[in-house]
Amino acid sequence: MRKYYCSENGYVEHERWVPHCWVDVECPDREDLGFMLDDLGIPSSFLTSISDNDERPRIEHEGDWSLTIIRIPMRDTVGDVPFITVPLGIVSNNEVMLTLCYHYTELLPDFINHTRCKGIEITETSDFILRIIHSASYWYLTYLKEINHTVQEGEKKLRKAIRNEDLLGLMKLQNTLVYFNTAIRGDESLFGKIRHVYQKSYDTDLMEDVEIEMQQAENTVDVYNDILESIMDSYASVISNNVNAIMKKMTAVSVVLMVPTLVASFYGMNVEISYGNHWWVFFAIIGGSMLTAVLLYFILRRANWF
């Protein structure tokens, strides 16, 4: 699906493509691919690079075409982790400005609404790239707040009862933070390249704002990752202590029951025993073994085995 926007006090949607407008393509079909390759003449290698979900942020050139790939966050409703990062390609030349993403995300619609609310007009390619990165940093922070809330709820559940489902949920969030950390560091690496490629054509104040936002997102990821690691380590220790306590109690119970079992084994053999013909011998044996078991119980309880 593709849409066309022109910067007129914010991005306004148009019915058809005109030079210098922004073409937004998400989840392209054959018609969209044909439009990009045949009508606009975008190099096919650019489309192939953007389609790779593992593509790293970078800037490259082919002829008069320029490709900038950044990693943006998105909510994952299909996979195991709640949030992932995907590549967003920004392709441009003298007349074309196009963004291509093979996933539907919340970032681009929010970016368009933001430009309309603020009345932002974007004429330079470098400023467009910086504002997209700025929007990505905003969504990183938004999703990180959701992750923090989920961690707090998961910790409350673990305090009541330690369940594998809750621990696995925290582990998935930890995987998400790894994805975010890698993507943010990759996006930050573009700042130096933008300065080199576009030199003085970019907005220096905007560049500083974007760097601050991305640094804040990186610091937030590091803090939340440390918190999650601490929680996982703490509950791993709790689980280990619980297992040790259970094994300790089971050992104590085995020791207490060992005496009656041993006595019963000895007197259960088919041999002659002293006083075997007296009626009180059976009760004496039972009473003596039970008394010994009770004494062992109090001894072990005094040693905090129960």
Structure explained in plain terms:
The chain is of the alpha+beta class. 61% of the residues lie in helices and 15% in strands. The protein contains 8 helices and 7 strands. The chain has a 7-stranded mixed beta sheet, sandwiched between helices. β5 and β6 form a beta hairpin. α4 (125-160) packs parallel to α7. The longest helix is centred in the C-terminal third of the chain and has 64 residues, at 204-267. The protein is rod-shaped, with a radius of gyration of 34 Å. The two termini are 67 Å apart. The mean pLDDT is 85.
Low-pLDDT stretches are none
Please give the number of β-strands. 7
Structural class: alpha+beta
| Helical content band | 55-70%
Which strands sit side by side, in order, in the main sheet? 2-1-3-7-6-5-4
Describe the structure using short key phrases.
single chain; 306 residues; alpha+beta; seven-stranded mixed β-sheet; 8 helices; 61% helix; rod-shaped
Detail the topology: elements first, then pairings:
Elements lengths: L1 E6 L3 E4 L7 E5 L3 H10 L4 H8 L6 E5 L2 E11 L7 E10 L4 E5 L5 H12 L6 H36 L3 H25 L1 H9 L5 H64 L13 H22 L4
Parallel strand pairs: 3-7
Antiparallel strand pairs: 1-2, 1-3, 4-5, 5-6, 6-7
Helix pairs in contact: 3-4, 4-5, 4-7, 5-7, 7-8
Structure summary:
The protein has 306 residues and is α+β, with helices and mostly antiparallel strands. Helix content is 61%, strand content 15%.
